[in-house]
């Protein structure tokens, strides 16, 4: 909820963030960012920045950029609700839980969902602070397309991913950051379209959560 609140102060007027929580075996988007412009496909033209300060922010170069194809995952129809409400999903923040990593089928389902989101041009941010399981779901996502990220060797991490056009080809770009207990969380790009990204300040959200819950 704090991430949603922070995004609400950063997003241009045409976008809205909403939380989604599901406890159980099914994987869901934790924080979704939607384009409120009915009928516009994200990335189809210059974005409407709404006059906000986010237009001036530029992310660093990606830690990984590879030309690739993403396999279909038709069984994951996580965008149905957007069509019914006249809004298009453009970004998702996934907070990885122990249940996402405890079994092979759970990991496979999570990775397939992320691949399906990326294939639909939805940018995805993964935040993994689960130290009780050594599996790296970002690495498994890259294995799905036969790639690896040399910069990613840690069990806990945060990474922003998008699948974007470069001429006639498609490239997967990723901004990965290893995490360590006691160190500040990173700021990652949250891509709203091919041209527009805003900063997702994970440390600010964490500090605000600790303050609100009186966690010292």
Protein described:
There is one protein chain. This protein is an alpha+beta fold and 216 residues long. It has one domain (2-43, 55-213). Helices cover 23% and strands 27% of the residues. It is built from 5 helices and 9 strands, in the order αβββαβαβαββββα. It has helices at residues 2-10, 80-84, 104-119, 137-144, 202-213, and strands spanning 15-19, 31-35, 64-67, 88-95, 123-128, 157-166, 169-178, 187-191, 197-201. The strands form 2 sheets. Strands 1-2-4-5-6-7-3 form a 7-stranded mixed sheet, sandwiched between helices. Strands 8-9 form a two-stranded antiparallel sheet. β4, α3 (104-119) and β5 (123-128) form a beta-alpha-beta unit. α3 (104-119) packs across α4. It is globular. The model is unreliable at 38-47 and 71-85 (pLDDT under 50).
Provide the number of structural domains. 1
Distance separating the two termini = 19 Å
How does the major sheet shape up?
Answer: 7 strands, mixed
Mean pLDDT: 80
Q: What's the helix-strand series?
A: HEEEHEHEHEEEEH
Inertia-based shape: globular
User: Mind telling me the C-alpha Rg?
Assistant: 16 Å
Low-confidence stretches: 38-47, 71-85
Q: Give me the side-by-side strand order of the main sheet.
A: 1-2-4-5-6-7-3
Give the number of helices: 5
What is the helix content?
A: 10-25%
**Beta fraction:** 25-35%
- Decide which structural class fits the backbone: alpha+beta
How many β strands by DSSP?
9
């Amino acid at each position: 909820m704090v991430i949603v609140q922070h995004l609400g102060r950063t997003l241009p007027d045409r976008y809205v963030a909403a939380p989604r929580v599901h406890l159980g075996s099914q994987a869901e988007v934790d924080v979704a960012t939607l384009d409120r412009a009915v009928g516009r496909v994200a990335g189809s033209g210059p974005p409407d920045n709404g006059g906000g300060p986010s237009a001036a922010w530029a992310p660093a170069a990606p830690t990984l950029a590879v030309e690739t194809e993403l396999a279909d995952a038709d069984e994951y129809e996580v965008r149905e609700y957007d069509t019914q409400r006249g809004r298009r999903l453009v970004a998702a923040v996934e907070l990885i839980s122990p249940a996402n990593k405890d079994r092979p089928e759970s990991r496979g389902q999570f990775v397939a969902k992320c691949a399906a989101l990326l294939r639909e041009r939805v940018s995805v941010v993964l935040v993994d602070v689960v130290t009780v399981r050594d599996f790296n779901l970002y690495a498994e996502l890259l294995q799905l397309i036969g790639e690896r990220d040399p910069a990613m060797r840690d069990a806990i991490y945060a990474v922003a991913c998008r699948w974007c056009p470069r001429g006639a080809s498609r490239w997967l770009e990723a901004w990965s950051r290893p995490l360590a207990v006691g160190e500040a969380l990173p700021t990652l790009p949250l891509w709203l379209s091919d041209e527009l990204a805003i900063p997702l300040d994970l440390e600010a959200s964490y500090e605000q959560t600790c303050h609100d819950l009186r966690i010292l």
